[in-house]
Each structure stands twice: as C-alpha cells, then as structure tokens.
Design goal:
By secondary structure, the chain is mainly alpha-helical. A two-stranded parallel sheet has the order 1-2. α3 crosses α4. The radius of gyration is 18 Å and the shape is globular.
Length: 154
Amino acid sequence: MKIIEEYETIFLKDFCPNPKSKIKYIFALGPWVAIRRDSWDNFKRDLFCIWLKKEPNKIYEGYKKRWCYLKKELKENFPELENHPEFGCWDVDVIVDKNLQPLSKRESLHNICLLNKSLEKHYGGFYSINTSNDNKFEKNLNKVVKIIKKHFKS
C-alpha cells in the first residue's frame, strides 16, 4: 500500500501539462488518490472530473467478489503468498478486521458509507455518475464519453 501511495503522490506532483497545448488528457484514477491532500489540491485545480459512484451494497458485493477471487488466485497460482501478512491490507477496516477476518455485512456497509462520505468532500464539486443502477460497462462508458464530449466542446 505504501508503494501505491508513493507512486500516486509522485504522479500528482510530477504531471504538468503545458497550458498552451491543445492536448487533452484522460486519467482513470482510484478514488483514494484524492486523499493525497497537497498533491491532489494542486492537481485538481484545472481538472474536469467525473466521479463514478456506486451504492454501498454494490460496493460491498464488489469487495467480496474481489476478495474471493484474489484468495482463489493466490491459492491456485501463488501458494507461497496465500498467507502473506499483507494480503488484503487494502480491505482492513472496510470488510475485514486487522487480523483479516471478515466483518459482518452490516459493519462493512457502515464502513463503506463512511468512506463514501469522506470522498464526497473531495469529489462532491465534480460531475458524478451513479453506476449502481446498471452494471453494464458499455452503458456507463457511453455516459462518460458523452459528458467528456460535451465538456470539451465548450
């Protein structure tokens, strides 16, 4: 996790487009990049951002699905890492406790709601799309493309 945090911070600090250039950039960034406070504040100054939001239940389902998939992948392909102490550290205090034991669904949903609320202050001023209503990747991608085209026409 520290490596991810380090590289997100480096990216935010080092990316500097030429303001005179007509080149437009599109980044797909994880939600937690916004908590790299000083770097994010500088980076977002001239940013047009679309926040893809999901309902807590859908986020929980995604977390659980990913957790099971990764555990299975480790067991099948990397048995030596299956019980690595840092496996799952990204889910601590969300869907698992500090010992990587699953939290109840109720507790997990509460944690996810708290995390969403903490992100709201970073992304609340930007355009957002609720992706929970349909899980069709193409549908959500089309929404994003329409917004980007509309934004860059002006």
